[in-house]
Every structure is written in C-alpha cells, then in structure tokens.
C-alpha cells in the first residue's frame, strides 16, 4: 500500500495562504523540477547558493555557476566575458529560466532560514 507523502514544513507554512501554496506548487512543477534546463544543473546551482563547496566539471556547469554568482551576489560579474560564455552554452530561454531559478531559489532559502527552517538545496 502506498502512502501519501507528508507536506514539508515549508509547504505547511505556505498553505496558510492557499494562493501562495498554489503559486509555489506551479513554480516547483514548471521551473524548479522541470523546464528546458537540466534539473541536475539546477541542483548544482542550488547547492552553490547554499554555500556548499561545489565546482563545475564541464564548461556549461562552470558558466551556470558564474551566472548564479552574478545573479545572487555580484551583478558586476555579468560582464561581456560572462555573457559570451553563457551564450556559448545556453539559449536565451534557458538563461531566463536558469536566472529565474537562481533568484527564486536564493529568495526561498533566505526566507526559510528566517523562519528557522534549514532548506535542503537538493530539493526544489
């Protein structure tokens, strides 16, 4: 017999405002877990944002981590060299999706930490 997976602590908080939970659930399904960009690459960026010691093994991964650093911590990193590298490995729709993922994930991590919840960077 299968069981229903319990809601995460974060989802229980989001559920206090049903529209927030619905919006998050849609974002999770369409951007965080799915989309044009490989979910493994998104998880790598999430671990980087969580201050885990990660390094990209491929040029595409290194470009994604450079994008994560620029979006999250230092917009001056988004110089011509980074844009050239990004456009070598990603289409514009992929850059939009990955940038949104990075910004959304960073915001969620910070918000959850203020609530005393340690988010799992491997989980969307």
Q: What is the general shape?
A: elongated
Indicate the structural class: mainly alpha
What is the mean predicted local confidence, pLDDT? Answer: 92
Strand-residue proportion? under 5%
Radius of gyration: 15 Å
Q: How many strands?
A: 0
User: What string, H for helix and E for strand, traces the elements in order?
Assistant: HHHHHH
Helicity, in percent? 55-70%
How many domains? The number is 1
Low-confidence runs of at least 5 consecutive residues:
none
Query: Tell me about the biggest sheet?
Result: none
Total of helices: 6
How would you describe this structure to a colleague?
This protein has 124 residues and is mainly α. The chain has one domain. It contains 6 helices and no strands. The radius of gyration is 15 Å and the shape is elongated. The chain starts with 8 loop residues before the first helix and ends in a 10-residue tail after the last helix.
Helix and strand topology:
Elements lengths: L8 H6 L3 H15 L6 H11 L9 H14 L7 H10 L2 H23 L10
Helix pairs in contact: 3-4, 3-6, 4-5, 4-6
Provide a quick synopsis of the model:
The chain has helices at 9-14, 18-32, 39-49, 59-72, 80-89, 92-114.
């Amino acid at each position: 017999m299968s069981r229903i997976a319990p809601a995460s602590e974060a989802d229980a908080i989001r559920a206090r405002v049903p529209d927030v939970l619905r919006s998050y659930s849609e974002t999770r399904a369409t951007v965080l877990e799915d989309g044009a960009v490989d979910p493994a690459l998104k998880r790598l960026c999430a671990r980087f944002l969580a201050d885990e010691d990660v390094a990209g093994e491929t040029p595409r991964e290194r470009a994604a981590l450079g994008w994560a650093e620029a979006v999250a911590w230092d917009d001056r990193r988004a110089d011509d060299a980074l844009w050239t590298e990004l456009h070598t490995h990603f289409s514009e729709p992929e850059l939009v999706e990955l940038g949104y993922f990075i910004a959304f994930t960073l915001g969620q991590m910070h918000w959850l930490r203020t609530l005393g919840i340690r988010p799992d960077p491997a989980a969307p």
